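TASK: fixed-backbone design
INPUT:
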């Protein structure tokens, strides 16, 4: 190489590239770096030979070792299930009350129930049962269908308004407005009365007055008492919510309450029997009961 391609200060060859008077030296890569590079290439070739690696049109190379990650996972899952079998069998043979009263079973059920809840229920009810808009909170003490262990288990097994299960929880609130049962004025009056039951302040735009609230009380007595009770405390057997506790599924403002009276929304919870095993349902019931609002 001619001297013209050498750096004057270092005497080392250059690439001939110059930027703003700065020449690019043509130094070889360090030997350790090249050694590592070649070792990695050799290792990758060895890996391709030993393990499944290269995809093709109709499959992939299987590797001389015949390693199958799915098979390994299946074996590990089967081993874990076998290790848990003694506890699962005990839970299957016990009631939720018995599980709740046995410290060891309860500890296992809580761990399993949390995992089952996060996988199947948290999408609607949020982690920890914190609830989401239009989906009830499971960590308070407000239950439409009851919050003891047996009632929670029943709801999980058969769902709410689940068309696939004949034993599902079922209640339907009439369309008081769209079916012409009540006039708009009567709906406004009863909405004002319902808000007064829980101490909610009426929307000024609704022009609620003591007289309208009194009229609403009569409308409530004629049309709503059968399900919600004379004091609006609700009825667990009918799935009629308590209207006095300021806990609202869809909202407690005048507009939302009026809309619910006019044409109510009815949520649906799937029936989990058949989707989850008997033991899983019991563990889930115990976990939900322990979230903080179990009765």
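OUTPUT:
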């Amino acid at each position: 190489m001619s001297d013209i391609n050498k750096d004057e200060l270092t005497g080392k060859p250059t690439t001939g590239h110059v930027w703003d008077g700065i020449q690019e030296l043509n130094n070889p890569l360090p030997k350790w770096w090249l050694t590592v590079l070649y070792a990695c290439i050799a290792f990758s070739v060895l890996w391709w030979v030993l393990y499944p690696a290269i995809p093709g049109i109709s499959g992939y190379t299987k590797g001389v070792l015949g390693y199958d990650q799915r098979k390994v996972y299946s074996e590990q899952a089967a081993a874990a299930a076998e290790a848990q079998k003694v506890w699962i069998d005990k839970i299957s043979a016990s009631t939720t009350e018995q599980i709740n009263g046995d410290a060891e079973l309860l500890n296992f059920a809580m761990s399993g129930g949390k995992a089952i809840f996060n996988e199947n229920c948290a999408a609607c009810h949020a982690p920890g049962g914190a609830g989401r808009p239009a989906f009830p909170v499971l960590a308070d003490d407000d239950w439409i269908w009851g919050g003891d262990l047996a009632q929670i288990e029943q709801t999980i097994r058969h769902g709410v308004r689940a068309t696939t299960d004949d034993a599902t929880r079922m209640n339907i609130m009439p369309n008081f407005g769209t079916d012409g049962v009540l006039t708009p004025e009567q709906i406004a009056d009863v909405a004002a009365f319902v808000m007064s039951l829980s101490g909610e302040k009426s929307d000024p735009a609704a022009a609620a007055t003591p007289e309208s609230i009194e009229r609403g009380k009569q409308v409530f007595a004629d049309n709503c008492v059968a399900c919600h009770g004379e004091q609006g405390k609700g009825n667990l057997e009918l799935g009629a919510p308590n209207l006095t506790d300021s806990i609202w599924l869809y909202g407690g403002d005048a507009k939302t309450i009026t809309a619910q009276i006019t044409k109510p929304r009815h949520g649906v919870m799937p029936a989990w029997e058949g989707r989850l095993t008997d033991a899983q349902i019991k563990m889930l019931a115990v976990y939900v009961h322990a979230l903080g609002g179990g009765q």
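COMMENT: The mean pLDDT is 91.
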